[in-house]
Each structure stands twice: as C-alpha cells, then as structure tokens.
Amino acid sequence: MAFESWRGLFGCIKPTKRAGSLEELIRMLPEGIGVIPLYLSINKGTTDEFKRSVEPFEPMVKELAELECDLIHPEGAPPFMFLGYKGEAELLKKWEKKYKIPMFTSGTNHVRALKALKAKKIVGATYFTGEINKLFANYFKEAGFNVLAMEGVQNVPFNQIQNLSSEQVYSHVKKLFLKNKGADAIYMLGSGWRVLPVIDMLERDLGVPVIHPVPARCWEIQHRLSINEPVQGFGRLLAEMIPG
Question: Residues 116, 122, 123, 125: what is their CA dihedral angle, to the nearest 10 degrees?
Fold first, then answer.
C-alpha cells in the first residue's frame, strides 16, 4: 500500500465519464484514504445500455483487486438494480468470494444508509423518466421499504443532468415530498446531479434526512475502513457518522 493511502485504499468503478461526483467525494474523504477510479462509458442512460453494463464491471473489479485495494465500489444504481435486490446481493457475494476484497454497490450503500437512519417510508427522486423508475421503486420495496413515490425530473437528457442547478433540484424534491405525505426520508438516486449545497437545506426545511449518493458513499467508506470523521454540511448521515 502506498504511503499516501495509510488509512486505506479505495477502488471505484464509475459507470460514466461525467465529472463531478468523484471530485466531491475526494474533497469529503478524510486524509490518508487513497482513491483509484476506473471508468465505463455509459452515456445514453437507456434501459438496454444499463442491462448490458453489468458484465463489463467484472474485469475492472479484477484489476482493482490486483492493485490490492482494501475496498471496491462498483458504482451506478441502475445497472445493478436491474438484477433486483436479491440478485445484486448474490453477484456481490460471488465477486467477494472470488476476489477476496469487500465490496458494495450504490444500491446496497443506499439501503444500508436508509436503514441506519431507521427509515421505513421513503420518497425517491431521480433524473430518469418512464418505466425505469418503477424498477428502482421495486428494488427498494424488495429491500423492505414502503416507497411512496419514485419520480424523475422531466425533460432533461441523461447527459445534461449535471447542468441542472441545485435550486432546480431542490424545487423538484420539495414538491415531490410535499405531494407524498408521510415519508420519513428522502432518497436521491444518482451521482450525476450537483446538489450538495441544498442537502442540509432540504433536511431543515422538510424535517427528514436526505440520502444522496456522494455523502452516503463517504459514510460507508469510513465505516468499512474503520474511520470515524464526521463531515458537516451534507446531511445528518455523514455529519453524525450514524452507526450502520
């Protein structure tokens, strides 16, 4: 392990070459954690593209294992959610046994974070439209949650979602939450949108915790590497380093 990775070496596989979320994560992570990113080339965000994308992850998992990462994270909720909650768990178990490195996906990370916050009824916001949102909802239902809604932002192409302002996303999430009474947590699917500045604001205004992939990722990396450094400004999960 390199000296600069004295607290652990984290390997991630990012499904797109979209800039933003990796930089956000690295700024959040405590000193001493090394990061090795690898990339796939998903760019259309279609159902067919996601269904074909799981197989290309494994050679990159193998590469990160050979680099002796302490933890591997194949990112991207849609590719693995197409397998279903149980199917995804079986694949992770198979890879962990084969490569002897602990791993987590975006989906398992989000489920773990929601359960750590004792959420039972959730409202989900995505940047996808159409039937794919039903698939996301079914994944969380299979994981044991009551999904009151899972809705996407309308009329924004997949490859342009990073250009939405955080204020636009705040408005979308708030309207969705107020339309679906009774939720005890808000779930935001996808690392593509740049919304970190409004997570604390949403939690204060709506009175429930917000799970966003980047802070949730930082939270799990710390727990997995036996580190405990709370980070303020991105929601209660990470600010309090909730056990989980």
Answer: 40
Coarse DSSP helix, strand, coil percentages of the chain, rounded to the nearest 5 percent? 50, 15, 35
Which residue is listed with tokens 């959040």?
A: 28
CA distance 105 to 103: 7
Between CA 243 and CA 117 the distance in angstroms is: 9
DSSP per-residue string spanning 170-201? HHHHHHHHHHSTT-SEEEE--S-S--GGGHHH
C-alpha to C-alpha distance for 114 and 133, rounded to whole angstroms: 18
pTM for the whole structure: 0.93
pLDDT in tens, 44-96: 555 666 666 678 899 999 999 999 999 999 998 778 998 999 999 999 999 99
Give the Cα separation of 223 and 238 in Å (integer). Answer: 11
**Closest alpha carbon to 124 in 159, 60, 111, 13:** 111
